[in-house]
Write a sequence for this structure.
């Protein structure tokens, strides 16, 4: 196989991995809302998870869309990464983010009994920690925008200083921050209940496969460009895959080893949890 053929083959593999990870990650959004629908209840699911997910995926959709379709941002990226001037963001990244944002909004809406009529525990309220992350992230982006407006050269279009690409990076970092913190309340809820009933393991298995393939695609793309700065140029995709894999392993350990399903039915489990007052306790 010649060098040109090897490059074409590697690019084809990258595209295949990208769409497979897109499929896995996209499908991972469905088991939880479907489980809620089947049980007509959101009990067992920490509301912090969909709350932070809405913020994270809306931010991710915005940042990937801008990197793909904004000539100004792409030119600023090329200026800062001359060795590999093309962003490693792909269309499947944007499609995944936009699709994820829609599904996260749907899952979050299931906590509104006026819309779905599902059973929601009185304890299922967003914690102060997650609300702090939510509004702190919004304020952080506003602060970067003001910095670009005040200190940026040429209205923020000169990439040698503060520029609009820094705002896009700030928005994209929201997704990374959310990914780090969004799983923690659910890990805690599972730990307190000593059960994963109400938390779909199907989404975790799909998420795990998607995370591995996402990182694999990123490494192939950087290898094709012969410049590993593409990793630092797309830190969210790298961090998103790694953090997801770590928490997926924790959830799989909880589900398959620590808190294996008992002989109790889902209804008996939920009733017991309500009596003990352990469902969806806010994390301070």
């Amino acid at each position: 196989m010649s060098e040109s053929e090897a490059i074409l083959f590697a690019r084809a593999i990258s595209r295949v991995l990208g769409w497979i990870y897109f499929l896995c990650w996209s499908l991972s959004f469905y088991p939880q809302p479907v489980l809620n629908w089947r049980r007509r209840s959101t009990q067992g699911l920490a509301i912090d998870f969909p709350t932070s997910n809405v913020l994270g995926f809306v931010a991710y959709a915005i940042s990937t869309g801008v990197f793909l379709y904004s000539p100004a941002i792409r030119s600023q990226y090329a200026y800062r990464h001359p060795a590999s001037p093309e962003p490693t963001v792909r269309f499947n990244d944007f499609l995944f983010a936009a699709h994820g944002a829609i599904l996260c909004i749907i899952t979050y809406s299931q906590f509104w009994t006026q819309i779905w009529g599902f059973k929601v525990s009185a304890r299922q309220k967003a914690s102060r920690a997650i609300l702090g992350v939510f509004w702190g992230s919004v304020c952080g982006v506003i602060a970067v925008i003001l910095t670009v407006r005040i200190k940026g050269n040429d209205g923020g279009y000169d990439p040698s200083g503060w520029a609009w690409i820094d705002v896009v990076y700030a928005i994209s970092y929201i997704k990374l921050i959310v990914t780090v913190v969004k799983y923690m309340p659910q890990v805690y809820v599972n730990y307190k209940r000593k059960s994963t009933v109400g938390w779909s393991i199907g989404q975790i298995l799909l998420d795990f496969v998607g995370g591995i393939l996402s990182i694999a695609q990123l490494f192939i793309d950087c290898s094709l460009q012969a410049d590993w700065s593409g990793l630092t140029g797309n830190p969210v995709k790298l961090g998103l895959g790694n953090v997801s894999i770590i928490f997926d392993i924790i959830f799989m350990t909880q589900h398959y080893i620590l808190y294996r399903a008992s002989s109790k039915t889902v209804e008996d489990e939920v009733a017991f949890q309500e009596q003990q007052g352990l469902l969806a306790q806010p994390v301070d």
The radius of gyration is 21 Å.
